[in-house]
Amino acid sequence: MSTTDIGTLRGVAAERQIAPIEADPVAPSSPADPAWSNMKAPDARSQSSSAVAVTNGRRALKVFLSNPNALFGTGFLALVIVIALIAPILYPDDPLSMVGRPFLWPGQNPDFPLGTDSLGRDVLAGILHGSRISLFVGLTATALGLTFGVLVGSVAGYFGGWIDDALVRLIEIFQTLPSFVLLVVLVAIAQPSATTVTLAIAVISWPTVARLTRAEFRAIREKDFVMAARSLGYGHMRIIFREILPNALPPIIVTSSVMVATAILMESALSFMGLGDPNVVSWGSMIGTGRELVRTAWYLTALPGLAIVFTVLALNLIGDGLNDALNPRFSQDR
Fold first, then answer.
1. How far are the Cα atoms of 15, 16, 25, 140, 200 from residue 74, in angstroms, in the given order?
2. Residue 201 · residue 183 · CB < 8 Å
3. Fewer CB within 10 Å: C terminus or N terminus of the chain?
4. How far apart are the C-alpha atoms of 253 and 259, rounded to whole Å?
């Protein structure tokens, strides 16, 4: 073999040894690559979850704002809240005081745009001040019912076992009794007042929230992120309130809007029956006062009745909009 052939073979062998090294270079990590070499898993998980939460929140807000029914309900509810806030400014006197001639029809006297009732009380002043009582009872009773229901449902759904059995039996005791009958009994036993009515409505409304929260917790407690939180040594309270509860909030938020509407209807029904606070005016008490004069002065029941109808309708429209925005199945379709 000649010297030239030996040199050629050596060159080929050198190329074969170098080729694999050049074919598999170490590529620099790009921003899109999930490089985990110098990153702690809990920090990465929190950053990823926060980014997903922001994205989902923006998507839900976009879906809610694109719903015309939800926007109408939100606008009307905002109007009712503004009216309730400015009612003492527009009518600083007692709305139960007699200020004019009885049975003035709407538009008959410019001083009383919506007329007067059988005792000469201003109907417009009663409707404006009645919005304060309706919103106070509805929002406060819902807040109390949500707080107690979420606590009971979260504990029952998270721990399970005998704790779950005991709390479910407690929920069933309240749900076996007719809600409105229990409400009437509670208010009749206690002194009728706005506070008593609010507490009684909260007592009969929390079992629904508790059952819903329990079902959500039972479905979420075995998820991977909950198991990861347990493996990291997080306590029960942190897992319940910071890991599971935020993921169980969407159906609870939707239910809360319906609870406010239901509380307003129950307060109106109690006031219609004469079981409301006699020292304040409410939409239900105005309807109860004018029910005997429906044929001669129908506006006394129609005007506060329309206020109740539109307020409850607005809350239900908001609930439907929240359901469309927060429900994953609906939001993914959009």
1. 74, 74, 59, 19, 27
2. yes
3. N
4. 10
Q: What pLDDT sits at residue 229?
A: 86
Nearest to 236 by CA among 153, 159, 152, 157: 159
Q: Is the full-model pTM beyond 0.85?
A: no
Least confident among 98-102, 204-208, 256-260: 98-102
pLDDT of residue 329: 56
Q: 107: helix, coil or strand?
A: coil
Residue linked to tokens 């009518």? 91
| Cβ atoms within 10 Å of 254's Cβ, excluding its own | 20
Instruction: State CA 48 to chain mean position distance.
Output: 26
Q: Which tokens go with 79?
A: 């109007």
DSSP-derived secondary structure letter, 273: T
Beta bridge partners of 109: 112
Question: Which pLDDT tens digit goes with each residue over 214-246?
Answer: 999 998 988 888 888 888 888 889 898 888 988
Give the separation between CA 122 and CA 99, rounded to whole angstroms. Answer: 7
pLDDT band at 56 (very low <50, low <70, confident <90, very high): low
CB neighbour list of residue 101: distance below 8 Å, 6 or more residues apart? 109, 116, 120
Distance (Å) of CA 126 to CA 85, 130, 135, 150, 304 = 14, 6, 14, 35, 9
What is the amino acid identity at position 328?
P
Distance (Å, whole) CA 244 – CA 154 = 9
Cα-trace Rg, the chain: 32
Nearest to 106 by CA among 296, 297, 309: 297
CA neighbor of 260 nearest in space, from 147, 84, 140: 140
The tokens describing 56, both together, are: 């989902």
Average pLDDT over residues 100-119: 88
Residues 252-280 have a mean pLDDT of 89
